[in-house]
Amino acid sequence: MAIIRTVLGDIAADRAGLTLTHEHVRYAYSGCEYDHHNVWEFNDVAETIARVMKSGVADYGIKTLVDLTPPEIGRHPELIAEVQRRSGMQIVAATGFYAERMGIPFYWRRKSIDYIADMMVRDLTEGMVYDNRFTPYRAGTIKIATGGMGPEPTPQEKNGRRIGPAEDRVIRAAGRAQKRIGCSINTHTLPIDYSVTNPALEMLDVLEAEGADPSKVIMGHVFIKPQLDQLKAICERGANLQIDHIGIKWYTPTADALDEQMTDLICRLTDLGYLDQILFSYDRFFHHGRGPMTDEEPDQDNTKVPIGYLFDNFAPRLAKKGFGKDELRHVLVDNPRRVLAI
Ligand SMILES: [Zn+2]
After folding, report:
1. Model confidence over 30-51: pLDDT tens digits?
2. What burial class does residue 246 get, using C-beta atoms within 10 Å of its C-beta: 0-12 exposed, 13-18 middle, 19+ buried?
3. Using the 8-state DSSP alphabet, how is residue 333 labeled?
4. N or C: which end of the chain has fewer CB atoms below 10 A?
5. Which CATH class is domain 3-340?
6. From the CA of 285, how far away is ligand 1's center (Å)?
C-alpha cells in the first residue's frame, strides 16, 4: 500500500488530503545555536507554531505539509513531532542537505557518496539523529540544493554544471537513496541561475545517472525567473514543478507582481497539458531562528505570509484566469499524494 511518512508515523497516501510540499517548521542557519540572541524555549515555540498550523487545518482544510528543512538549517525532529501532536497537521520531515554555499557541514563534505546515502536511508527508515540522540521520528522525503546566494548567477564548476563538488556528492547520494526507498526528492534551485542554464535539468542529469525516478522529483523555486520553455523541458523529463513563494516577494518588487507572473505561467502550463506535474507551497518559516533584525539582515516575508493567503488571494487570481476549483484540488490533493507516496 502506498503510504506517506509523517514524523508521527505512516498514513495511507489517500489520507494526505490538501498538502503543501515546501514549508519550514523552524528555519535557522548553522551556527545560530552559539548565538546569545538566539536561545529559544521549546514549549513556547511549539505552541506558537501549532497555533498557526491549527488555523491552517481548521480554517483552510490543509491536512499535510512537508517540512523541507535539511538538518544543518535547523531541522529539529522533536519540535516537528510536538507541532504535529499539538496542531493535528500531518508533517513530513526531510533528510538531505542544503546548497554548499550555505550548508553541507565540513564533516559531510569528507564522506563518500554511499556513506551519505546510508545516512539518508537511516533517516528515512529508522529515525533522525539530533543533538547526540537517536529519535524515533523518521524523515519522509529528501532535500537537495544547488546555487549560491545571488544576485549573480552561480559560477560554472569544472564539471560543466553549476553544481559544486559537495552538492554533486549529496545529489548522487539522494539518487541512490531514492532508488532504494522509492521516496520523493524535493529541490532548491537559485532563480537567477535560470538566466544562464536550466539548473533543474542539471540536477536531473545527476540524479538519473544514479538511478533516481524523475517522476518522484519536485523542482523548487522554478517559477520565480524561468521561461516557459525551461519549465516545459523539466516536465518533458517527467519531473514536477513546485510553485512556491506564493505571497512572498523574491526577485520582484512585490508579492503581488510575483503572484501575477506565476499565475500566468501556471495557466499556460495547464493549457499545454502539464497540470499533473504542478505542486503549490509557500516556503513559510513558521519559526525563524535568527539574531536581531538589522538593515543588513531585515525580516523576511517568509515569516509573515498568512496561512490562508493561497486560498484567500492566490486561488481567486487563478480562478479569474480560468484555473478553477477542480484544477486547484488536483494540484493541492492528487499531485502531492502521488509524488510523496512511498
Ligand atoms: Zn525553503
Report:
1. 999 999 999 999 999 999 999 9
2. buried
3. I
4. N
5. alpha beta
6. 8
Burial 45-76 (b: 16+ CB within 10 A, else e): bbeebbebbbebbeebebbbbbbbbbbbbbbb
What spacing in Å lies between the alpha carbon of 198 and ligand 1's midpoint?
Answer: 19
Return the exposure string of 131-170: e unless at least 16 CB atoms fall within 10 Å of the residue's CB, then b. Answer: eeeebebbbbbbbbbbbbeeeebbeeeeeebbbbebbbbb
Q: How far apart are CA 97 and CA 73, in angstroms?
A: 8
The rounded Å distance from CA 218 to ligand 1 centre is: 13
Grid coordinates of 5: 511518512
What count of residues does the chain have?
Answer: 342
Query: Nearest CA to 299 among 312, 317, 285, 313?
Result: 285
For the chain, give every domain's residue range: 3-340
270 CA from centroid of ligand 1 (Å): 25
Report whether 186 contacts 22 (CB < 8 A): yes
pLDDT tens across 66-85, in order?
999 999 999 999 999 999 99
Specify whether the CB–CB gap between 95 and 128 falls below 8 A: yes
pTM of the model: 0.97
pLDDT of amino acid 253 = 86
